[in-house]
Amino acid sequence: MTLRHLPIHTGCLAEQAAAKFGETLALVGERPWSFAELAAAVRKVATGLAHGGVEPGDRVTLHGENSWQWVVGYHGALRAGAVVNPLNVMLTSDEIGEIAADCGASAAIIGSELRGKFSTLPSITLFDYQDIERFCGEGIEDPPKVAPGDLAAICYTSGTTGRSKGAKHSHRAVLHNIALTALMHGKGPGDRVVTALPCPHVYGNVVMNAGFVTGSSLDLHARFDPGAVLDSIESGATMFEGVPTMYAYLLNEELEVRDLSSLRICTVGGQTMPTATMEAVEQRLGCPLIELWGMTELAGLGTTHPWTGPRKLGSIGTSLPFCEARIDGGYPGPGELLVRGPVVMDGYWGNEAATREAILEDGWLRTGDIATRDEDGFIFIVDRAKDMILTAGFNVYPAELERVIAMHEAVSLVAVAGLPDPVKGEIAAAWIVPKPGMTLTEHEIAAHCRERLAAYKQPRRYVFVDDLPRTSTGKILRRALPATLEIYHD
Questions:
Q1: What stretches of 25-111 adopt beta strand conformation (E)?
Q2: Which long-range contacts (CB under 8 A, 24 or more apart) does 320-323 make?
Q3: Where does 37-171 show beta strands of DSSP type E?
Q4: What is the C-alpha separation between 259 and 131, in angstroms, rounded?
Q5: 350-392: pLDDT as tens digits
Q6: Is 161 a residue whose pLDDT tops 50?
């Protein structure tokens, strides 16, 4: 399916996929679905939602674990003309209430076990996963008319640096990101994609929807479990898509006893990944690892590498087709990465001030990421501007320190954050998860860093832990690290 053949809006994506791919396997799992079966279920769920009071333009919150019900509920809501509001399954009742009030959600599709989170929101009509199953047996009605530029989704930022903001995505932006990402990664009807990325996350959403454009099959896991993922890959998967922490855990498995020969590529995004770890992944999984970059404000990806083209480990690649990327301040940087094109959000829901701050008058989106560009046009993320540590007047970027520390053979996971210091203002501290069966001392890792980092960059504290605080996507929460010092006293 080319851009020319994309549907008018996301709500008819399942229907068009059924017409093109028919009985091809679309969704793998305990309940396999063909594209034709999914489209039929989507039509019926759209009808059930409409009969339950959902009208075109209504905001419908989605809150549940990855499942066929989530996929069908998402497309059913869009087919009914609603605006979907996907929420992280880890959010609390208070956080859900805040977001639902902000976007004016009138209905929610939720995992059956999550009804309690909505007990204080009586104005929201609830449809749980059991309702979705029941709707699949009801009648069919035609969907309302929706234009490509109409609002399709309101996706809220993680809120790790303040109050969450709702990024508004048009049907055009969502469809373009799905199609352009699939094009860059060469997805087609012969692919079988394994993922545990949460569907509410924009990266997971693009992966989930790719099959409706390309005819590829999706093996969707409710949560990440290394053994279960490897079982799925051994069943004939051609792609695995994940975040750095997932690959770190896969590397701790006995991969040599697994048959992973069906893999043609893997992708990684969500956070910077040390080059040493990327090299280990490629060697042990036996396929190229393609790094990508995106954000909530882009409906998914903003940059990646083409699957057939040149790659540079540690680089996030180049901009998607029909999009632009530049470094504020000019080549080669470092400077803030700016992006422009059809995948950029329309703005933040109900927050014009934040919109004006994020999107410049000429359409460039300020990403908040510090980046450089090399002579070949490849972009490298230095770090999040807000994560930078200012120590004695020097700028220290946690991602650089993490890449160096991860080079040590005994390090499984590492994260760096700043701690207040009365003399230097801030100092860098490193939280380290050692590899299973290996020991690591502060003296050893400090010596490793002294050989590779300038004196002002070296961490002044090392904390050895069993795990790191993460989001539902597996992204490490650097800003939550200092609080763990109340638990770990070393």
A1: 25-28, 33-34, 59-63, 83-86, 105-110
A2: 320/177, 320/180, 320/181, 320/184, 321/180, 321/183, 321/184, 322/176, 322/180, 323/180
A3: 59-63, 83-86, 105-110, 125-128, 151-156, 166-170
A4: 40
A5: 999 999 999 999 999 999 999 999 999 999 998 777 888 888 7
A6: no
Q: What tens digit of pLDDT does each residue of 136-158 get?
A: 887 677 788 899 999 999 999 86
CA distance 126 to 109: 6
Burial of residue 430 (CB within 10 Å: 0-12, 13-18, 19+) is buried
Side chain identity, residue 455: A
Whether residue 490 is predicted with pLDDT greater than 50 in this model: the reply is no
Residue 162, pLDDT score:
54
Question: Does residue 206 come out as left (phi exceeding 0), alpha (psi in the -120 to 50 range) or beta?
Answer: alpha
Which tokens go with 275? 């080059």
Whole-angstrom distance, CA of residue 412 vs CA of residue 391: 27
DSSP secondary structure string for all residues of 199-264: TTSHHHHHHHHHHHHH--EEEE-SS--HHHHHHHHHTT-SEEEE-HHHHHHHHTS-GGGS--TT--
pLDDT score for 455: 87
Q: How far apart are CA 131 and CA 76, in angstroms?
A: 12
pTM score, two decimals? 0.85
CA-nearest of 257, 215, 160, 207 to 66 is 207
Angle at 339 between CA 81 and CA 376, to 5 degrees: 135
Q: List the one residue out of 41, 347, 74 whose CA is nearest residue 200.
A: 74
In the structure, what pLDDT confidence band is assigned to residue 306 with cuts at 50, 70 and 90? very high
Take residue 143 and report the two structure tokens written for it. 């969907």
Angle between helices 13-21 and 68-79 (to 10 degrees): 110
Is the CB of residue 350 less than 8 Å from the CB of residue 125? no
Which H or E run includes 300?
strand 300-304
C-alpha to C-alpha distances, 204 to 15, 178, 200, 243, 399, nearest whole angstrom: 21, 11, 7, 10, 23
Greatest Cα pair distance, the chain, in angstroms, is 70
Report pLDDT digits (tens) over 271-303: 778 888 899 999 999 999 999 999 999 999 999
Beta bridge partners of 290: 267
Instruction: List residues bridging with 359 in a β-sheet.
Output: 365
Is the peptide bond prior to 244 cis by the omega test (within 30 degrees of 0)?
Answer: no
- Torsion-angle region of 194 (φ positive above 0: left; ψ -120 to 50: alpha; else: beta): beta
